[in-house]
Specification:
four-stranded mixed sheet, D-Maltodextrin-Binding Protein, domain 2, alpha+beta, single chain, 15 strands
């Protein structure tokens, strides 16, 4: 009789334990506690993500902290934005950051390293996702930001304009010189069209072409290289092609219509605008950027919606659940179908751009991109920028010669190179 009693006691205990784990949702499942994640980011961007996230995670609600609302309400001048954003980050107990990277404002801010979580949860990455992960890792190997979407710079070629003017359509791959020759050939036929456009203000076209097309580094061994002979040659070309007009306009890039240009250097997402305007692949095509033969690094895959997780958040696991879900193909389908986020999802089979070629957008065309780990301090960069802008604004309206403006810029570079305090890593 004792053995039978012991048996019944065991059965009762097991049943009690099972009942404790039951819920109205089903046996063995616990109801998840309702929580609110505080998300810092742009209100309209977060709002577009919310429906799909609320459907996937019904126990999570979202409170949006938008620094721009505070900055505008308090009429903070632009040069005071960083300090005010740092204060907001310190005051608000935010769990998840979207396109706001706390370490840009507060040194050594605690953020979750997502690299071990990718391994722990056995999240398989495709080629593009792996490139995004690798490029997001710091020199210490930590992964503090992760984006489910990307963009990439490409070359749009106005096939219709080349055809109408009787100029051979350029073919990829092409060098910078071949690219400019095609642009100049168009302008020789019709001086009212632009050979190419790159809608960037001030000095940005110079830096962008040097880095992305020529493969040059602005700083090497704590020395600025931007006034060396080959850099001057590039600057002179860009100055005549477009930058002179920008300097004449006090830095603003002139309003140039891509439809009146032979070639347009721009983010690949511009193709969506072309589709909206009912442009076809008969009128335009997409190729990879022109590049110097010695430039072997791939055109960067740029993250467009970077998420970071507060390391001290009580809901860091829930926040990681949101981020990891957004990396999934399931989420990618929603992002593309509902046009939730700027850029492209990392699943090429889901990218729909009509008859335009997708290869220049998704194909890795070289060795992994490795940006320079050297930079100017903020003060040195401002000093350099002011020198270039002031001198070439004067040159653009005829107050000084180009050579005088360049000599002044060269002198400033020499001053910065002589001061080790001009540089940081």
């Amino acid at each position: 009789m004792r053995k039978r009693t012991d048996c019944w006691l065991s059965v009762i205990l097991i049943a009690a334990l099972l009942l404790q784990g039951c819920s109205t949702l089903g046996v063995g499942k616990k109801e998840k506690q309702n929580i609110t994640l505080k998300v810092m980011g742009q209100t309209d961007v977060i709002t577009r993500f919310k429906p799909m996230l609320e459907e996937k995670f019904p126990h999570i609600s979202y409170e949006i902290i938008d620094p721009m609302i505070t900055l505008n309400a308090e009429k903070i001048p632009v040069d005071g934005w960083d300090d005010r954003i740092a204060t907001i980050i310190e005051e608000e107990d935010v769990d998840l950051y979207l396109n706001y990277y706390p370490e840009s404002y507060i040194e050594d801010f605690p953020l979750v390293d997502m690299a071990p979580l990718l391994t722990r949860d056995r999240i398989i990455r495709n080629d593009i996702q792996q490139i995004l992960v690798d490029s997001a890792k710091g020199t210490d190997g930590r992964l503090l930001q992760l984006s489910p979407t990307f963009n990439r710079d490409v070359l749009f070629i106005n096939r219709k304009l080349f055809r109408e003017l009787g100029v051979p359509e350029p073919r990829s791959p092409m060098t910078w010189e071949q690219f400019r020759q095609s642009a100049l050939a168009l302008q020789e036929k019709d001086a009212t069209v632009h050979g190419y456009i790159l809608n960037m203000p001030w000095m940005l076209p110079f830096y962008w072409v040097a880095e992305n097309i020529m493969g040059w580094k602005q700083i090497e061994n704590r020395q600025l290289r931007i006034t060396e002979p080959e850099w001057r040659q590039l600057f002179e070309q860009l100055y005549e092609d477009m930058m002179k007009a920008s300097f004449q306009n006090l830095g603003d890039s002139p309003d140039r219509d891509p439809q009146q240009a032979g070639m347009y250097l721009a983010p690949a997402s511009y193709v969506q605008q072309m589709i909206y305007e009912q442009r076809t692949s008969e009128d335009w095509t997409i190729t990879e950027l022109p590049r110097d033969p010695s430039h072997t690094q791939m055109t960067p895959f740029e993250a467009t919606n970077n998420f970071a997780i507060h390391g001290d958040s009580s809901y860091s696991e829930d926040a990681w659940g949101v981020v990891s879900y957004l990396m999934s193909e399931e989420a990618a389908v929603r992002i593309m179908e509902e046009r939730i986020a700027y850029g492209f999802v990392a699943y090429p089979n889901l990218i729909s751009i009509g008859d335009f070629p997708i290869e220049p957008i998704v194909t890795a065309n070289g060795t992994p991109w490795s940006p320079s780990d050297e930079s100017l301090t903020e003060e040195a960069y401002r000093s350099l920028t002011d020198t270039f802008n002031g001198n070439f604004e004067a040159a653009a309206i005829g107050l000084v010669t180009f050579d005088t403006a360049w000599a002044n810029a060269e002198k400033k570079v020499q001053e910065l190179n002589a001061d080790p305090g001009s540089f940081e890593q």
